[in-house]
Task: structure prediction
Amino acid sequence: QEQLVESGGGLAQPGGSLRLSCTASGFTGGISVLTMSWYRQAPGLKRELVATHTKFGHAVNYPRSVQGRFTISRDNANNTVYLQMNNLKPEDTAVYFCNAIKDASTYWGQGIQVTVSS
Result:
């Protein structure tokens, strides 16, 4: 059964860094055949796309608010996708979700809390 498990969240101070990991299991072909993304959802707001790493090796960050601070990458050998978050701001506080797309199917992790506060 396909599964995505996030890790690496927690509490960070403004200006600090965190690296989120999402490990996939149960996917035929591993994550090399998947387009992987990170989303986030803050309280009272809609879930928003943060970054995507396509199966063709292209990394795209979406909100202007994270450009230059967040970097998505993947390790196909270990079936893991990462989100490196630098210079964190209080407005980055949210639950972060790992997402995978394979053909016409979409998969989600359970989400992990990131809190940026002094």
Q: What stands out?
A: The radius of gyration is 14 Å. The chain has a mean pLDDT of 95. Residues 51 and 117 are 23 Å apart (CA to CA). The chain has no helices and eleven strands.
